[in-house]
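Open question from group meeting: does this chain pack into something compact, or does most of it stay loose? Before anyone orders reagents, we agreed to write out a predicted structure and look at it together. Recording both the input and the output here so the notebook holds the full record.
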Amino acid sequence: MDEDVRWVQRLQNFQKAFHRLKTALAIASPDEVQRAGMIQFFEMSFELGWNVLKDYLEAQGFSDVSSPRTALKKAFQEGLISNGRGWLKGLDDRNLTSHTYDELTASKVETLIREEYYQLFEELSHTMDLKK
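Structure tokens returned:
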């Protein structure tokens, strides 16, 4: 498959997951199940987001971007994302939520999704739409 096409297809999947996250965030006071769904949409959006960056960077000729951390750092260096630290923090939280679930962590991550990660995903969606 052409790498150029791959990153565009991945972007479309990212935007679908991000749309689902937006829908979940519209619930002002989610119950436990709704919060778990929101966190799942965050995890999917994050995973697809860093992969969009990886695929795009590879299409641009970069070969050293196979891990999330290296892809995010290179994307920041190349101006694809403006908040590298925020994305790296998101990586840590994505890893935490995908391996552990307790209500205190879930509540904390919900707040971070609403206050920080949503904006990161929105910026990525807009930036990559301009690259198509």
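Observations to bring back to the group:
Residues 4 and 123 are 20 Å apart (CA to CA).
Helices lie at 3-25, 32-59, 68-77, 84-99, 103-131.
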